[in-house]
Specification:
The complex is a heterodimer.
Chain A: E1 5-7, E2 10-14, E3 19-24, E4 29-37, E5 43-50, E6 55-58, E7 61-66, E8 71-76, E9 85-93, E10 99-101, E11 105-110
Parallel strand pairs in A: 2-11
Antiparallel strand pairs in A: 1-3, 3-8, 4-5, 4-9, 6-7, 7-8, 9-10, 9-11
Chain B: E1 5-7, E2 10-13, E3 19-24, E4 31-37, E5 44-50, E6 53-57, E7 65-68, E8 75-79, E9 88-95, E10 107-108, E11 112-116
Parallel strand pairs in B: 2-11
Antiparallel strand pairs in B: 1-3, 3-8, 4-5, 4-9, 5-6, 7-8, 9-10, 9-11
The chains are: A mainly beta, B mainly beta.
């Protein structure tokens, strides 16, 4: 069963605006990863943040991690139509060799 | 293309039939994972291999499901006596994990969409 919850479930914004997605999890993690999935396709890794890190940047992506609250957020700045996709957080747990995915946020960028 | 490939992309079958899916991982990757994803949900872990050894199976993987990775390269996932509840996207992923501190970033194939009628 999935252990992560993502919020919101769906988000629609105008092109050029920033999009923020949140993820909560239940267990101790080694790292937390964010993936993107275009409709009907496989997942693409976006960014990884280790449990001892608080913030990470990659291009237009910014990820934060609060292990005390067991939560993470993904910020996409200056959104583009091509960012339209589903976004999933995934926890890689200590001693557990698999990724546990959240329920995902469906992001729609309106041109 | 040196990414993860899955075959077939789509499979339609009748209830009770057996189906087999294939996954070819990135060549140097030692880990191979199978996930199942239903509409509107995130992927759920089914099983994984380190080289040819199957190291973990989810409780989701009933005895109708079997996976193999005979030479530590490609893998197959077979579902026997398919049921309508097996309809889903089956995703394969691979990763290179060499140390305990490895990040385990997984690279996914495009998936096989199974429809059981």
């Amino acid at each position: 069963s999935q252990q992560g919850e993502e919020d919101p479930q769906a988000l629609s914004i105008q092109e050029g605006e920033n999009a923020t997605m949140n993820c909560s999890y239940k267990t101790s993690i080694n790292n937390l990863q964010w993936y993107r999935q275009n409709s009907g396709r496989g997942l693409v890794h976006l960014i990884l943040i280790r449990s001892n890190e608080r913030e990470k940047h990659s291009g237009r992506l910014r990820v934060t991690l609060d292990t005390s609250k067991k939560s993470s957020s993904l910020l996409i700045t200056a959104s583009r139509a091509a960012d339209t996709a589903s976004y999933f957080c995934a926890q890689f747990e200590r001693g557990n060799e698999k990724l546990t995915f959240g329920t995902g946020t469906r992001l729609t960028i309106i041109p | 293309d040196t990414g993860v490939s899955q075959d077939p992309r789509h499979k339609i079958t009748k209830r009770g039939q057996n189906v087999t899916f294939r996954c070819d991982p990135i060549s140097e990757h030692n880990r191979l994972y199978w996930y199942r994803q239903t509409l509107g949900q995130g992927p759920e872990f089914l099983t994984y291999f380190q080289n040819e050894a199957q190291l973990e199976k989810s409780r989701l993987l009933s005895d109708r499901f079997s996976a193999e990775r005979p030479k530590g390269s490609f893998s197959t996932l077979e579902i026997q006596r398919t049921e309508q509840g097996d309809s889903a996207m089956y995703l394969c992923a691979s990763s290179l994990v060499q140390t305990e501190r490895a990040k385990n970033i997984q690279y996914f194939g495009a998936g096989t969409r199974l429809s059981v009628l």
